[in-house]
Backbone:
DNA sequence: AATGAATGAGTATTCATTCAT
DNA sequence: TATGAATGAATACTCATTCAT
C-alpha cells in the first residue's frame, strides 16, 4: 500500500491547437454548467490540460470567456447569414425559423443556452456586452436581407422571446403555434 | 436601489420581521450584482445582519433565492393582473405594455433585471424553474382577460423578447417601435 | 405560489419523558453517525424535538454525551452481569462469549460501535473516561464471578480485541476460531 | 510531539517536500487532538503552511487522512516485520511484545493513539478501512514467521485488546500481567 | 418551563491568479 | 514555452451556545 495520487495526466507537452481546444471546451463547460461553473479549473479538467496552461494562454478568466463567446458568435452568425442568403423570400425565412424553433431542439438548445448565458453576463461585463451587440447587429442585418429594418428588429425580438419560452416551458408551443406567431410578420 | 454597506453593527438580538427583510434585501442584491453576486455574505452585509442569521432562516442559498424570486413574483404578478383587470379593452392593454417597456422607470428596469436573472437561473435550477413557470402561467392568464389564449401566448413571448432586448441592448427600441411591434397583435 | 417553509413540527408542548427520549436518541445518532455526527441539531432532528429543547435539558453537548453513554453502560453492564450470574461455570461463560462474538451480530454490532466510540472519546474527555472505567470495572467484576482477577482481566482484553477484529475485518473469525481462542483461558 | 504554532509566516514560495511535511504533521495533529481535531486549518497551522496549500495537495480531508494513516502503516508495519524477522523464536517475539506494550515509551504511546483513532475512523470510512485491513494482514503475516496462522490471528487479537486497554485505561496492566497474558500463546 | 431566533467562530472546499522553475 | 506549486480571499454551510420572549 503505497501513496499514489498521481493525477494520471498523459504527458503532452507538444500540443498545437491547444489554445483553440481550450476555447471550444470553455463553451462546452458553459453549456453544461453555466458561466458560474466555468472556472479555470473546470475548463482545465474538461480540456485535459494542466491548470497553468489556461492561465498561460489567457491572462484572466474574462479573456477566456470573451474568447469563447466570440468564437461562438463567429460560428453561429455566418451560418445564420448563410441561411438567410439561401432563402428565396420572407416566407422561406419564416419556414426556416419555425423549423429552428420547433425542430432540431438538440442543436438549438445548445445555442439557446449560450445565448442566454451570454446575455446575462453581458449585463455586468462590458467586454461581453460588445460581443452581444455584435451578435444582435449581425443577426438583424441578416434578417434585413428579407425584411425592412423595423420588421427585422421586431422579428428578432419575437424569436428571442420564443426561444426563451421553449427553453423554460414544460409545455412548449407546437409547430403550428410558432408558425402562427411568426406569420404575423409575413406578408 | 442602493445597498447600504454600513459596517456599524448595532446589537440587535430582537428583530422581528428580519426574515422578510432578508428576502427583500436578497432581491436588491440580485438586482445590483446578479445572482452570481448573491452570496450569503453579500446578502448579510446588505441586510446588516450577521452571516449566521441568513443560514438560520434559509438552510441553503437555493432556498433563499427561491424565497426571493417567489416574493418578487407574488408582488409583480398580482399587480399585472390588476392592470389587466382595470384595462377597458385590448387597446388599453397594449398602451400599458408600451408604457411599461418603454418607460425607463426605475421600477421597470428593476423588474426587467430580476426577470432575466431568474430566467437564466431557472435553466439550471428546478426550484426556480417552478417559480418561472408559475409566473409565465399567471401572466398569460392575465392577458387572457383581453386576448384569446393563442394570442395571449404569442403576445407574452413577444413581450419577453422585447424585455430581453431592452434590458440588455445599449440601443433599445423607442416607444414608437415597441408600439408598432405590439400592434401586430391588436385588433 | 406562496412562501411556506414551515418546518412541519407537530405542536407537542406537553411531552413527559422527553429527556429520556433525547438520551436514547443520542445513542442512536452516535451509532449511526459517530460522536462526530452527534451534534445538538442532529439529535434534535432525530428525536423530533426543537433545538432549544436539547440545550434546555442539557447545558452542554458534553453533558448530553455523558448522559447517553452512562445510560448505555447502565443497560449493558447489568445485562452482562446477569448472564455471568446465570452461567453455571467458566465453560458456560465461554460458550456465551462465543455466541456473543460470533452470533447475533446485529445487536452486538451496535454495542461494539458504542464501545469503540466511547473509548476514543474517553481518551480526550475526562467525563467520558470515568464512564469508560466504570464500564471496564463492572465487566471485569462480572467475569470474576467465574475467573480469578488476573484471568478475568486478560479475558476482557482478548474479548475486546476480538470485538475490534470482527468489527473491522472483512474476513472475521468463524465460531470455531473464536471458540479456540477463548479456550486458552478455560481449564 | 509538540506542534509549533509560530504565527510568523516567512514567505516561502519554493518549498519542496512540503507535501510530505503536511502528511507527517497531520499524524502529529491526530495524535495530539484526535481525528476530530484534524481539520484543514489545524494541520495548516501546525505545519506552518497556508490553508490553501493543504487543499492544493489533498483535494479532500479524507484524502489527507488516508495519506497520513497510510504513511504511518508504511512506517510501522515494516519495522514490526523487521523485529519479527530478527527474533530467534516465539519466546523472543513475546518478549518483544511485552516490551512494546508495557514500556511507556513515547513512541509506543504515539503508535497506540494512532491505531485507535484509525480503528474508529475506519468504522465509518471505507478508504481508511482498507488501510486498517492492510495493516492487520501485514501484522498477521509478520507473526506467522513464528506462529501457525491460527495462533497468529489470536495473538494479534489479544495484542489489539491489550493495546486498547493500555491506551485508554488509567490503571494499565503491568509488565508481569502482560507477560502472563501473552504466555498463553507461547509454547 | 420551553423554544424560536440569534450569533460568531468554525468547517471543508473552490477559486483566480501569481510565481519559481 | 509551459507548468506544478503556491496562496489568500472567498464560497456554502454547520455548530455550540446564548438570549428574548
Residues:
Amino acid at each position: 500500500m503505497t501513496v499514489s495520487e498521481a493525477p494520471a495526466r498523459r504527458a503532452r507537452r507538444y500540443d498545437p491547437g491547444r489554445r483553440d481546444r481550450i476555447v471550444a471546451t470553455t463553451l462546452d463547460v458553459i453549456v453544461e454548467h453555466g458561466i458560474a461553473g466555468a472556472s479555470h479549473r473546470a475548463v482545465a479538467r474538461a480540456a485535459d490540460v494542466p491548470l497553468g496552461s489556461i492561465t498561460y494562454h489567457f491572462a484572466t478568466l474574462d479573456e477566456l470567456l470573451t474568447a469563447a463567446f466570440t468564437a461562438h458568435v463567429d460560428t453561429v452568425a455566418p451560418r445564420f447569414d448563410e441561411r438567410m442568403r439561401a432563402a428565396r423570400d420572407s416566407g422561406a425565412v419564416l419556414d426556416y425559423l419555425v423549423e429552428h424553433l420547433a425542430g432540431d431542439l438538440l442543436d438549438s438548445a445548445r445555442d439557446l443556452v449560450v445565448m442566454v448565458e451570454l446575455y446575462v453576463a453581458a449585463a455586468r461585463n462590458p467586454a461581453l456586452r460588445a460581443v452581444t451587440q455584435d451578435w444582435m447587429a449581425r443577426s438583424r442585418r441578416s434578417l434585413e436581407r428579407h425584411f425592412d429594418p423595423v420588421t427585422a428588429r421586431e422579428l428578432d425580438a419575437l424569436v428571442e422571446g420564443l426561444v426563451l419560452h421553449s427553453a423554460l416551458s414544460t409545455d412548449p408551443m407546437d409547430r403550428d403555434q410558432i408558425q402562427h406567431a411568426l406569420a404575423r410578420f409575413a406578408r
